[in-house]
Amino acid sequence: MKTFSITSRLGAEHRATLEHLLFFNPLQGSLEHRIVETIERYGAPDVQVRDGTLRISLGGRTDVQTIYALSPADGGPIGVAIFVRENEERFVVVHLGVAADYAAGGAHAEEHLLFHLVQAIRGAARRTRGVRCVDLFYGAGRVRQIPV
User: Fold this and answer.
1) pLDDT tens across 122-143, in order?
2) How many domains does the chain have?
3) What residue ranges in the chain does DSSP mark as E strands?
4) pLDDT tens digit sequence for 40-64
5) Residue 129's domain spans which residues?
6) What does the buried/exposed string (b/e) look like for 48-62 if buried means 16 or more CB atoms within 10 Å of the residue's CB?
7) Alpha-carbon distances, residue 71 vs 14, 124, 126, 128, 145 (angstroms)
8) What is the distance between the alpha carbons of residues 94 and 138, in angstroms, rounded to a whole number?
C-alpha cells in the first residue's frame, strides 16, 4: 500500500533532508561508477532555493525536472528523481535517491517507491509531445530504456 505522495514541488524547509538523500545516501556506494559517469555527462546536482521552493540544477542545463516522493509523517522527501529531456524522443533519468527505509530490504520496501517515481516520470513523458521513452542509467551498469 502506497502511503507517500509524489510531487514536483518541495518547500525550502526540506533542503537538508534533500541534500542528505542526494549526496550522503548510504545506498549510493554500489552505484558509484554509474553516478560518476552521469555527473561527468550531465553535471553534479546543485540544490537551490527559488521562491520558497527547492530546485535542482545540473551544470547550467535549463531542462532539468525533479519529482519528489514525500513522507506521510512530515512531508519531507523520502525519494527524488532528476531527469532531463535528452532529445525530442526521450527523457533521461539522471539521478535517483531513495531513503534506506523505502529501498529494497528496508522497512517500507513493499511500497515500491522507486517504481512509483519511474511511473511518475513515464506519466510526464506521456504528456510531453514527441517523447517515446525514458532511459535509466542506474542499475546493473547499463542503460534501461522504458517505453512510454
Assistant:
1) 999 999 999 999 988 654 445 5
2) 1
3) 5-7, 45-50, 53-58, 64-70, 77-87, 90-98, 133-136, 144-147
4) 888 889 999 999 999 999 987 878 9
5) 5-147
6) eeeeeebebbbeeee
7) 11, 21, 26, 28, 28
8) 8
Q: With cut-offs at 50, 70 and 90, classify the pLDDT of residue 30.
A: low
Instruction: Assign residue 102 the CATH number of its domain.
Output: 3.40.630
Residue whose entry in the numeric block shows the C-alpha cell 527523457: 91
Residue with cell 520558497: 52
Grid cell for residue 32: 558509484
Residue 105's identity, in one-letter code, is G
Question: For cell 546543485, what's the residue?
Answer: 46
Q: What does the pLDDT look like over 81-120, one tens digit per residue? A: 999 998 899 999 999 899 999 998 999 999 999 999 999 9
Mean pLDDT of the chain: 88
**517515446: which residue's cell?**
132
Q: Is the dihedral of CA 16, 24, 56, 107 positive or negative?
A: negative
Q: What percent of the chain has pLDDT over 70?
A: 91
Are 122 and 91 a contacting pair, CB within 8 Å? no
